[in-house]
Amino acid sequence: MSGFESIIEQERPVRILRTLYRKETIPHALLFTGQEGVGKHSAAIALAMICNCMGRETPPPSHGDAQNQLRSAAIRNDDPCGVCPACRKIMSGNHPDVIHIRPTGATIKIAQVRALFEALSMKPYEARMRVVIITDAHAMNPSAGNALLKMLEEPPDRTILILTAPQKVDLLPTIVSRCQLVRFNPITRRTIAAELVKEHGLEKQAASVLAAVSNGSLTRAKALVQSDWLRYRSWLIAASGLAAPEKLETRNTGQLLAFAETLSTRKEMVSDSLAALLTWLRDLIVCRYAPERIVNTDLIDKLQRVSQKNPVGAIMDKMDAIRTAQKAIEANANLRLSLEVMMLRLAEA
Question: What does the alpha-carbon distance between residue 124 and residue 120 come to, in Å, rounded to a whole number?
Answer without folding.
Answer: 8
